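Posting for a labmate who doesn't have an account.
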Amino acid sequence: MTEQPPAPSHLRGAVDLSSLAARPTSESTRSAAGPDRADQASGSWVVRGVGEGELQQLIQLSARVPVLVHLRTSVTPVSDQLDQLLTPAVNGRQGRLVLAEVDADAHPQLLQVFGLTSGPAVIGILSAQPVPLLNQAVGADQLDSLLDELLQVAAQNGLTGTVPPLGPQEQAPADAPPAPPALPPLHQQAVDALAQGDPDAAIQAYRQALKENPGDDEAAVGLARVELMQRTATLDADAVRRAAADSPDDLEAQLRVADLDLVGGHVEDAFARLVRFIALHPGEDRETARAHLVQLYSVVGDQDPRTAASRRSLATALF
């Protein structure tokens, strides 16, 4: 490739994927881009639930059209915001682009394929070459400009074709529940701020919502997620992990590693690290670590079995 769109600094340095793309592919996925697929007007170019095998096959497809890989994570609302914009933007280009959605929480090794330690991130792939694009929500106009620029770079490299749909158009089932009600004003203000790349404004909105209603659990979760994003955005993962290994009794060092583990999808490791610290360190450090761990519980969600298991371990460590 001769040029690339600018990328956030921590997304740079992704590896050449040509060897991954060269692996054998299954006949079923070869046919996904063949002429016998559904009519383009009713199809979709978005592939969800992509694992390593499907990613290998889609990287092969990047020799024909650009492939976008959305490495999504549940620890931040940014992935949902990106999906709401990416899906119509890709389908609206009628086969000039393909979108692969990867659950980075379930497949953290696929973050490593792209030289990343955490998501979310959107990577473009042209002829097995990665082009980092996004790691935060953007406005629809900015996304359109990025995709148009990506298509221009693709054209300069001879990728000017289209592919048939990779699946049927996504439609809500007839018995689907009604759309959720509009967000409360301060919640919407926070979401809009994140979409504009302003996490500070989002934090202010969530804090104001909690000030007005201390029992607003959704605002508390939103605040915890955005604060986690901010704490980890500029961390040097290697340096943080070295510091934690060298100073196992340093509370801040252990908290930073736990944050990195969580955003990287290593939820059990993050929880276990703090439970272990709490068990070994009575006093003020114990309470600070416990409060931080409870905040991470809210990021993951109380219904997650990993949270329930860790709460049991925490109770044992405390009592």
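Reply:
Got it, the structure tokens are right above this. The chain has 14 helices and seven strands.
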